[in-house]
Amino acid sequence: xxxxxxxxxxxxxxxxxxxxxxxxxxxxxxxxxxxxxxxxxxxxxxxxxxxxxxxxxxxxxxxxxxxxxxxxxxxxxxxxxxxxxxxxxxxxxxxxxxxxxxxxxxxxxxxxxxxxxxxxxxxxxxxxxxxxxxxxxxxxxxxxxxxxxxxxxxxxxxxxxxxxxxxxxxxxxxxxxxxxxxxxxxxxxxxxxxxxxxxxxxxxxxxxxxxxxxxxxxxxxxxxxxxxxxxxxxxxxxxxxxxxxxxxxxxxxxxxxxxxxxxxxxxxxxxxxxxxxxxxxxxxxxxxxxxxxxxxxxxxxxxxxxxxxxxxxxxxx
Length: 317
Hints:
This protein is of the alpha/beta class. It contains nine helices and eleven strands.
């Protein structure tokens, strides 16, 4: 029998060294762990800089660069350490803007003097006009003030300390009966159209009488009117009684022309200082010659002090 022909390509021999065995075993272990992690937690690719980047540790001996890259680059999300939270910068809170100081100016005694009153019509600032009842021009002045979008209140005559001083028609006196007082007050209120409140004319005796003030405030509350205490005497109980009965009220701070127009600038300074200290202030002037012009000159001073001029109803509480 003829011998079989020999092949020219001998079968290769695989030399399974210990190094190859360990590397194969490690790669199989790595693959099995990766498959397990992929089922539990989907892998997340986290880009990393190359290993040659300065600051990264040199690969440990016994691992190839490919294995190092796989271990370093592909990891389950569950094994990635959370990034440290960067604290947010504190929110800058702007300091609250202090409220603007406010001043209300009341012009008393309208109704009996024409020219000195009409001089105020040209002032383009908020003013509150206190109109006396039963004057020759009372109704005319009240309607003109309302037409010019100014505030009108009743300048209510009340009994003064000096019995020789006449407060004018329609005055409320302590000796009158409650019914007489109510009738007179009702007539006074009706005599001045467009009023939103009341302040007292004279009344240093009347504003000290608690019973009279209780009657007055009860009627004003029914009518929905506020009360401004002109404070002709510092022992007045008018504002106290008004608060007790729930009538909105405020108190005069400065008489602007009590010493004549010469002292008007100094009184304006006092009014501004009071408003800046308290947050608000009420000044009272009268329908006297020269007062409107003095008030016109004072307007820039209010603006320079950052003070807002308002109707007195803004300041009642």
